[in-house]
Amino acid sequence: MTEAIIPPQKSLKSSSSSLRRNAQVNDQGHVHDHAPRKSDCTLPEDDDEWGELRLSESRPEVARGWTDEGTPYEKRGLKRRARTATRSVPIPPVLVRLLRDHIKRYGTAPDGRLFRAASGGRVRSTEYCDLWKAAREEALTPHEFESPLAETPYANRHAGISLLILAGIEPPEVARRAGHSLAVLYHVYAKILRGRETHANELISAALREPAAPPEGGGRKGPL
User: Fold this and answer.
1) CA–CA gap between residue 63 and residue 65 (Å, rounded)
2) How many whole angstroms separate alpha carbon 169 and alpha carbon 74?
3) Fewer beta carbons under 10 A from the terminal one: N or C of the chain?
4) What is the reported pTM?
């Protein structure tokens, strides 16, 4: 599947909710042809269980004249990975439910794609961005809508990674889920990571205040 997810084709209110939950899936900074398939998803029926997406390719959108096939996108492997490499991305229960409900309501395309245009073809970037703008207008206050807040779909990625950091997830795990290196994580999110120093200091201070547990057998006896 490609490295992005678009909102289900339903009411803008529902779409705006899903837009804010898809932050951790997009792996590149440009618009992609979005073609996740049902076979790429593990969607447990248990509402409290995490699911999984299996990523195998990206399709950055470009002008037709720049591709060998004359298509408005180019098939590529995952960013900074071998052409045949795949990546597993855990998805939280709330996104599992959204995808499961979308499949139940709308089904899939004949080739298994979850999201498709009204004609059954690929969803173009213009359609995606128009929906994003409408969802922002409905979900945000007028002041927020006029601000840079979530101005583009890619802002969801930054929001998702920031959420993981603020939740206390270890940086190596954050980088793994985001699909990039620790160096990139520390470079782009340095300010947020530094903001965790106070919390880390508090944890260390609490550990230093705790009395050491006595060794087994009731403690040391006799001379050293």
Assistant:
1) 5
2) 34
3) C
4) 0.65
